[in-house]
Structure formats: structure tokens, C-alpha cells
Amino acid sequence: MNHFGFVKVAAGVPSVKVADPAYNAAQLEELIARAAQEGVRAVVFPELCLTGYTCGDLFLKPLLINAAERVLAALLRRTEGQDIVFIVGLPVAAGSALLNAAAVCYRGEILGVIPKTCLPNYKEFYEQRWFTSSLEWGGGEVDLCGRRVPAGTDLLFEAGGMKFGVEICEDLWSVVPPSSRLSLQGADVIFNLSASNALAGKNAYVRSLVGQQSARCLCGYVYASSGFGESTTDVVFGSNALIYENGTPLAFSQRFSQEAQLVSAEIDVERLRAERMASTTFRSDAAYEAAEPYELIETGMPPAPVMSLSRAVSPLPFVPKGSMLEENCQEIFNIQVTGLATRLAHARAKTAVIGVSGGLDSTLALLVCAKTFDRLDLPRKGIIGVTMPGFGTTDRTYQNALTLMKNLGVTVREVDITQACRQHFCDIGHDEKNKDITYENTQARERTQVLMDIANQTGGLVIGTGDLSELALGWATYNGDHMSMYGVNTGVPKTLVRSLVAWAAQHETGKKTQAVLADIVDTPISPELLPAAENGAISQKTEDLVGPYELHDFFLFYFLRYGFGPAKIYFLAKQAFDKKFAPGVIKKWLKVFFRRFFAQQFKRSCLPDGPKVGSVSLSPRGDWRMPSDASAEAWLAEAENLR
Q1: What is the dihedral of CA 209, 213, 215, 219, to 10 degrees?
Q2: What is the mean pLDDT of residues 109-122?
Q3: At 386, is the secondary structure helix, strand, or coil?
Q4: What is the pLDDT of residues 554-593, one digit of tens each?
Q5: C-alpha to C-alpha distances, 633 to 199, 272, 570, nearest whole angstrom
Q6: Cβ 565 vs Cβ 528: under 8 Å
Q7: E-assigned strands of 304-431?
């Protein structure tokens, strides 16, 4: 069983008794056993959790320091049979210095000790009264639990398929956190042992801080802060445990709980490494930092097989969730509108010419045109919407196209292409009864010719309607709907097109416009190039031919964004579409995706201009450069062997 780059990590928040290391070690032992049982590979606990963070001047008493060391040694003996790394906080004596430290432990051994660098000594914090900063101490080795142990902030650890580093509480709040250097040295995951008392409004700030650092470092970040049992003489601790991955929250604890807590999640290390490989900024910074290499301590712990994930995998990775939907839809429209407005102004175009079919893509493009003309203070009559009924046009899409154009106040033109296509069939000697690819593409190219010539007539630009999903699959007629003078949808995948039109339907003021937009969203996706069924319904449904766009957009996202191969995409798709598509169906369309994606690159190599709106694009001038004759065999071979 493959681990697919996932490593399960956890943050534990035990209840503590201040200055009672024996009690505290027993609480840690229970959480370590629980984490190991759940398949966690590494778990972090709060700052100074073996003694309690709030011991005050008791930290200066050898009895407490010795007791903490003694219970740690016992904890190591009792957990040596468990295949899990645990990271605990305790005071560590180093000659005349006392370190606020983290001990990284595995199978009865202390792998390393990391001292805290930034000791807060302001407001309610007095750490410099008791502890020595790592900068002042200097690093090296410490004697702990009867052995000589490497110690310093320049330690990296390898376990379970990840490299990780450790920093402590205030270190994260510093101008240059140790985690920045640890990440540049190769740490995939950062573990933070924290105390950080609770204050009104502080939790949101902490979440932002952890999230931003995980995004800046392109890393996983696991944060455990003190909770119930710490002294409340002057402050309160909120039992805060957080797990982030590249800015995305994966797991949170219940704050102010009086019960011990363990929160866990799988960090996608392969995904993080793909991000770093693609980021030239990260690579440049890492090359600079590598001048002072850190020590790597290997545990020998192998990656654990992954059967399923506790983290959610969205079936619609391109579509914003919840409260982000409103903000992102507005942002995407603004990007499209700004792109088109700039192009129209630069070209001094008098009109925008757009083919309106009554389908999703042309609807979104028409809405963008309307918003663009409004922004430029131009009359919408300068938008020339052209409906071009052909052999497969149904009354539903035809009426929706006309209604939408009229409601938006654009100029409506109708050009029936059937006679022109028949003449073309006659010219090239094609039997109209033969409804093959020539039959279909003749219509698409005739429509594009009509639009181009009307643009010439009116001094305008042809606005392309094709979307990112169609470009990925090559679902466009070369030099037909494939071509335009500016493609406003070129960066928008089909699932997002649907969401944008649905969002627009809710925000249009006119009820008639809302109704037609809602019906367009519900209309089956079709190029309508083959005659309708006897009852007048659409007979040629795109998703019956190339597969569900939900699946193809999912495949596209993980292939383009992170470079994942078929096996991992298949694994994630099974998680995301567990209730909707059987594994065999996913595999079938995954093979279709890779076959079409590689075969259709030649269409993407000569795309018209158009704005990038999300994290991926297929523009040959932007995100994607690929030879048109590259072979798909390696990807198809892996896909064929999926089970």
C-alpha cells in the first residue's frame, strides 16, 4: 500500500499539574499511546509540559529540574516499543545555563534537544529571569537522561517520510523565525511547542500567524499550546492546537477544554515538495541558506501506508467554499472584466462580438462583456451578441440565448448557418448524411468565420468563450471555437463557470434574467452539433462523450497544480467522490483525461490571449509549456495498473 506522500501528525494538549512532573508524564504517556494507536507518526506537546509553563521561580530549584529529567527517562522506557516520535517541553540544565527546551524522542531515545531562542520578557512574560536563549548559550550537546544528546536550533529530523524541525512559542513571533531557516534547510513540517496565554482577539491572530508562516515556508505547521491545569494566578491558557498545510487549516482543538485533547491530520509532504520545486523564490532562498547546512538526524522510521484520509478532499478544488464563494466570484469577475476592458481600450475597439449559444460558457462571457461595458461607461448596444442556429440547435438553448441578450440590453443578431454549411459540404464533396467530425467541425468553423467577419464590419473584437477544461481536453474545434481575439474564460474551468453563472443568477436584479440564468445552469452541456432528439431535447451531451467535468477538473487541478501522477490522483479522487463515482468509473475517465490532455497540446500551443484567474493556467505564454508531440505512455501505463 502506497503512502502517497502523506504523513499523519498530531498536536496534543494534556491537562497538567504545575510543578508535578510525574503526573504530567502520565498524561503525556496516555496521549502518546492514543496517537500511536491512531497511526500518528509524530506528535508535539506544549511548551514546558513536563513541569508546567507557569512554575515561575520554581524553575530555579534543582529538585524540579531533576524531577523533570527523571520522569522523562521513565517515559522513554515506557514508550520504547511504540513506533512514534514525540516532542515534549521541559527545562534542561546545560552547565550554568537553564534552557527552555524541546526533547525529540523516539523508541526510548532522545534524538535531539532544541532550545528556545526568543525569550519573551515583557508584560506578563519573565522568561529571561530563569532561562538562557539559544543565542547566548551557543549550542552543542547536553547531558540528559544519562546520555550525551545533540542540542541546538540547527537540528533537522527525518521520520516517516518527512523531514521536520522544531521551534518554541515566541520563536514564531520573531522577525526571522527559526522555522524559516529550518524550512529552507529542508524541513517539510514544523512542530511548535507553545504556552501563549489566551486574550480577547489573540486566537485569530495566532491562527493567522501559524497559517501565514506555513504558507510562507511552504510547509506543514503543527502547533500545541498549554491548556487546563496551568496556573491562572494572572493569565489563562486556552488549550490551543492547530495544524496547517501551506496556509490551509487542517485541524483545530476545542479551546478552553478541561479534557486532554489530541488533534491529528495527514500532511501531504509530496504536495509541499512539489510547491517548493515549482517556486524559484523558495529554491533561491534555500540555495543561499544551504551555505550553513543543518545536522540531519534520521530515525529510520519508514512511511506508513495510507488507506484513507481524515482530512477532507474537496471534489471541486477550483470552486471556492462557504464564505469565500462570494469574495472569489467577485474577484474572478473583476479579473475578467479588467482584462477585457484593457484589451478593448488598447485596440480602440468599437464593439465586442460574441457568439451566444445559450450554454454556460457563452453566458459567462456575455456577462463579463456587459460588466466591462458598464465599467467603461459604454452603451451595452456596443456588445453584438450573435446567435447562430445550426443542425443541432434546440429550442431551449435558442430561446435562452435570445432572452438573455434582450434582458442584458445588447445588440442581437441572428445568422442561421445551415445553408452556408450545406454549401460548404457541396464545395468539398461531403455527404450531409455522414454526421462525422467534418460535419460537426464545419459548423464550428462557420460560426467563427461569421463572428470574425462581423467584428471586421463593426470595428470590434471577437470575444472567446472556451474555458480551461475544454482546453485541457482539447474539446474545441481547431480554428473554430478554439480561436478568438480575446478569450475571457481561458483561465476558468467548467465547474467554476457553472458556479459563476449560478452566482450571477442570484445577483442579477431582474427576475427574468435570474430565471434564464438558472435554466442555463440546469441545461446539459453540449456543443449542439448533431441534430436534436425527436422530442427536441439535446442529443449530444458532452459529459457522455468525454466524461464528467467534475472528474476532469479534479484531475486537471492535481496534475497541473502539484504534478501528481495517476496513482495519487486516483487515490484522492476515490476519497473525494466516494459516494458519487465508483473506482472503475474514476479510472476510466482518468485514462481518458491523460490520453486527451497529451494528444491535444497542439491546440493549446497557439491559444489567443486571455486572463489567468486562479492558481493554474494552460497558456503557452504563462503556466504551461509542453511539446505537442510528448508521449502519454508513462502516465497511461500507471493509470492502467490502478486498482
Answers
A1: -130
A2: 95
A3: strand
A4: 999 999 999 999 999 999 999 999 989 999 999 999 999 9
A5: 57, 26, 17
A6: no
A7: 351-355, 383-387, 411-414
**Which backbone phi and psi does 267 adopt, to 5 degrees?**
-90, 130
Report phi then psi at 13, rounded to 5.
-125, 100
Band the pLDDT of 111: cuts 50, 70, 90.
very high
Question: Environment class of residue 255 by beta-carbon count within 10 Å: exposed (0-12), middle (13-18) or buried (19+)?
Answer: middle
Q: Which of 29, 23, 35, 44 is nearest to 79 (CA)?
A: 29
Topology of the domain comprising 6-298 = Nitrilase/N-carbamoyl-D-aminoacid amidohydrolase (3.60.110)
The yes-or-no answer on residue 169 being catalytic is yes
Pairing of strands 6-13, 261-268: antiparallel
Q: What is the pLDDT of residues 460-513, one digit of tens each?
A: 999 999 999 999 999 999 999 999 999 999 999 999 999 999 999 988 767 888
Name 548's Cβ contacts closer than 8 Å, sequence gap at least 6: 581, 589
User: Which residue in this structure is represented by grid cell 454526421?
Assistant: 435
pLDDT given at position 346: 97
pLDDT of residue 525: 84
Residue 145 designated active-site:
no
Q: Alpha-carbon Rg of the chain, whole angstroms? A: 30
Residue range(s) in the chain whose domain bears CATH number 3.40.50.620: 324-640
- Catalytic residue among 118, 169, 329, 369, which? 169
What is the number of helices (H) and of strands (E) in the chain?
21, 20
**What angle (nearest 5°) sits at the alpha carbon of residue 412, between those of residues 444 and 422?**
35
Q: Which of 8, 29, 49, 116 is catalytic?
A: 116
d(Cα 589, Cα 568) in Å, to the nearest integer? 15
Question: Is 47 one of the annotated active-site residues of the chain?
Answer: yes
Q: Of these residues, 8, 29, 47, 421, which one is catalytic?
A: 47
Which part of the chain has CATH 3.60.110.10?
Answer: 6-298
- CATH class, domain 324-640, is alpha beta
Give the integer Cα–Cα distance in Å for 469 and 367. 19
> Using an 8 Å Cβ cutoff, are 111 and 297 in contact?
yes
- Structure pTM? 0.92
**Residue 90 contacts residue 144 (beta carbons within 8 Å):** no
Q: What CA–CA distance (Å, rounded) separates 514 from 400?
A: 11
254 Cβ contact list (under 8 Å, min separation 6): 239, 261
